[in-house]
Amino acid sequence: MKRLFAFLMLMGFLTLGNSWTAVAQDDMSNDTTATEAMDSSAVAGQDSVAAGQDEVVDQTTVEETEAAATPAEETFHQRVKEKFIEGGWQFMGAVLLCLILGLAISIERIITLNLATTNTDKLLAKVEKALSEGGVEAAKEVTKNTKGPVASIFTQGLLRIDEGVEMVEKSIISYGSVEMGRLEKGLVWVSLFISLAPMLGFMGTVIGMIDAFDAIEAAGDISPQVVANGIKVALLTTVGGLIVGVILQVFYNYLVSKIDSLVNTMEDASISFVDLLVHYNQSK
Fold first, then answer.
1. How high is the mean pLDDT of the chain?
2. How many Å apart are CA 39 and CA 41, to the nearest integer?
3. Final residue of a structural domain among 27, 49, 64
4. Which of 126, 151, 169, 282 has the fewest CB within 10 Å, making it most exposed?
5. Among 70-74, 167-171, 190-194, where is mean pLDDT lowest?
6. More confident position, 215 or 39
7. What is the pTM of this model?
8. Looking at the domain assignment, is residue 73 inside a domain?
């Protein structure tokens, strides 16, 4: 009985030992499989990273090649400068000079006309108050200390107030013509440059066409390559002259409208000023 029990225990230990060995072998096998899988994943990841780096390098190389092959975009200033040189410095320089002088005179006139603008209602109220409080001399001080053609006209009228209202009116009309001439000063030059710039452009056009026909005569051929340069010069000078004429024409029209507005203001203020002097003489 004891031998049987001992035999059964021995068989149990052997069976348990074999089971543990199998389990250990299975664990080792699983660990080996997992390790191999991890190694395979790591290798695959490294291959993917290497492939990605190669792709990035290739893409960067392609982009650099395309960027090197694509020329840099020219700015507006560079294109204008290039076309100016292609049009020929003789006529393009003359057209540019017309633009510079015309703009200088126009800007000076704009500043002058804006400074000449006066609030006539406020000025008339001050003159009326000065006449009622201090008489003609006080009104003269007000008009002399105020800038603008309207105040200058009022001053001339006050200087003739002792000679009667009719002399005041004549003085205002005469001096108003003088102030109008001062306001229109410089407009004739702007008008000249408006006409001169396109004429210079057309002259360059004619000369460019003459050069194109000379090239045809010299080459004995009428191919586009022969006449292209002369035609380009002709068109560029024409465009330059027309652009200058358009720009200066805009400034000229603004100046004319501003002068007309000032003249109308002067006339209305002069009428109100004469009425004010009439009431002042009647109230004395």
1. 74
2. 5
3. 64
4. 282
5. 70-74
6. 215
7. 0.67
8. no
| CA–CA distance, 158 with 167 (Å, rounded to integer) | 10
- For residues 22 and 142, membership in a common domain is answered with no
269 touches 120 (CB < 8 A): yes
- Where do runs of H (alpha helix) occur along 117-186? 120-144, 149-159, 165-183
- Assigned domain for 112 exists: yes
Q: Are residues 113 and 11 in the same domain?
A: no
The pair of structure tokens assigned to 102 is: 């015309």
Q: What is the separation of C-alpha 122 from the centre of its chain, rounded to a whole number of angstroms?
A: 38
User: Residue 43 sits in which domain range?
Assistant: 1-64
d(CA 46, CA 53): 10
Six token digits for residue 72: 């840099």
* Residue 201 and residue 242 in contact, taking contact as beta carbons nearer than 8 Å: yes
Q: Measured between alpha carbons, how far is 154 from 162 in angstroms, rounded to an integer?
A: 14
**Considering the domain boundaries, does residue 70 fall inside one?**
no
Reduced DSSP (H G I as helix, E B as strand, rest coil) percent helix, strand, coil of the chain, to 5: 90, 0, 10
Residues 245 and 147 in one domain: yes
What are the pLDDT digits (tens) for 235-271? 788 888 899 999 999 999 999 999 999 999 888 988 8
Cα–Cα distances (Å) from 46 to 33, 34, 39, 53, 81, in that order, read: 20, 18, 10, 10, 55
Contact at 8 Å (CB) between 251 and 265?
no
